[in-house]
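Subject: for your reference before the review

Hello V.,

The reviewers asked for a structural picture of the protein, and I figured it would be easier to keep everything in one thread rather than splitting it across files. Below is the amino acid sequence we used in the manuscript, unchanged from the supplementary table.
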Amino acid sequence: MRTFNSLGEQEILALAISLEEEDGRIYSDFADGLREGYPEQAEKFAALRADEDGHRHRLLTLYRERFGEHIPLIRRQDVKGFVNRRPVWLTRPLGLNAVRKQAALMELETRRFYELAARRTTDAGVRQLLGDLAEEERRHEHTAEKIASAELSHEEQATSHRLFVLQVVQPGLAGLMDGSVSTLAPLFAAAFATHNSRETFAVGLAASIGAGISMGFAEALSDDGSLTGRGRPYVRGMVCGLMTALGGLGHTLPYLLPDIHTATTIAIGVVMVELGAIAWVRKHFMDTPLLAAIFQIVVGGLLVFLAGILIGSS
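And here is what came back from the structure prediction:
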């Protein structure tokens, strides 16, 4: 790798052309990746791509005037000091917040490059163009910040809500339901069989953590998100696993109390709160009628709870 200070004017211009070509293609990828879910934001990135293309043409014109037709291939990764960028095609589906942050960083880095390059050049024409481009990149930086703070349209807000439901709420709800319901039977079976808080807590803890690990892997391996738009599988798996463990631990923690009867009473109250929270989430995010959500969750939880009591008492 070369240091920036070792580059001559010809190499600086060749590198600037390469940077503008790369940034333009990245903005094109941003616009394409956001067009379906965020059409207004996609158009703004398309406009930035057109600006970068204009910069490239101006740099090419000046380069031909000074150094001829051949342009040496100098890429950002060949010069020390540039930040490594994760390829856009590896991060599909694109998240709007991540795109906004990367765009702002791209403009900041490119502006600093032009400012440093302008100071190092002695040719008046090259210095003027690089200085002008630095100022234009500064305006692009402000544009990227405005995109980051812009209000989303109603359609884009609806799309953002749908993505949040697909990528966070659904796996979290599945985990919470599984953790809250599936651990009831072993926990209360242990409580009624042993009449010992410590042993019941150990059973509940093992059931909660085991269910969390199992559900996390199941969710992560079920869908890579490439076609469904449900996001990164390991994030969904982590959300699902944590919520599963949390759902089980909620009614397990009361058994840290030494008195088994007090602990069981509190645990039953916690279960009712958990089932109510699940019903509310289903109504608020999944458009399930509240009475139907309560009926489904309460009946299912009650059956598992009774199964645990019957098994533990037998």
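For the response letter, the relevant points are probably these. Residues 88 and 179 are 36 Å apart (CA to CA). The chain has two domains: 4-150, 155-313.

Happy to draft the paragraph if you're swamped.

O.
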